[in-house]
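Cross-check.
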Amino acid sequence: MSKKSYSIALVGATGLVGKTFLEAFLDLAIPIKNLKLFASPSSKGKTIIFNQHEYIVDTLSSHSFDDIDIAFFSAGRKVSKKYIPSLLKKKIYIIDNSSYYRLKKNVPLIIPEVNFDTFQKENYLIANPNCSTAQCMLPLKVLKDTYGITSINYTTYQSVSGSGYKGIQDLLRTQKNLEPLYYPYNIYNTCIPEIDEYDRDNYTKEERKMILETKKILNDDKIKISATCVRVPILQGHSISIAVQLKKKFLIKDIQNLMNHTKGIILKDDLKNHIYPLVTDALHQDDVIVGRFRKDYSRRNGLLFYCTGDNLRRGAAGNAVLIMKRMIEEKYI
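Predicted model, tokenized:
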């Protein structure tokens, strides 16, 4: 890591992902010279303790990004749409965690271990992928590079923290036999196969994100992809069952060996001894856990496996900070 230190702005500092950014800055040893924290007007004046220093949360203004090297946005599509275009004129590096820019043609959508080569120094705007997409990309990249991929089918089990504080509060409310205020049903007693709005084909936006972002990150529009995204009654961490059709024949032991030797992936795959991916093992880290590898007998060269990850770390803040870390290592900033 460079000895240089950086001035960083964090927009959305008081949200779940915003707080996870601060955790990731420390865990990944980002050298910070100056830190500016921003949030909505209701949070203005709040104090946040970070690395034994007090920081006062402010609201955004035309001078918010003066003398900033890099800005992280984690305050939703509307805020990104409003403020990012003017910042690009100042040539400040921006990593946006919202969905607004992810599928824009000239905006790189990056998982550092997968496709950092799509970033160029003049790319002042970088998009951070959807949380569920992000954790799948590492094992799928390994499979694509080694065997090729024909199709992918996702089934997700996504925690309520993916909905932010409103999702968490709904789970806590319904645990006490109170009526839900955010989800259409009692999330404590059921799983809800609906995340975000639906389109005319009865896919939800979350499912579309997984389909389209996977194609962009893996740089392959020919892969056939489908997804079913389900909200489940746990606080944090997403799990995903993945069915992949590969282009070449494979042995399970070879795939396990590949996963076991890939940075960012932890292999847990010993069903006899009840060893497999659990979200509780994936929390507060950027590695994803894979296991339950077995052949899918419903299709030629079919493979089934299970993947867990922390949706707030690898799925959001951690991935964004890893992008910055890689930019520092490659001397882009």
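Residues 131-147 form the longest helix (17 residues). The radius of gyration is 20 Å. Passed to J.P. for a second look.
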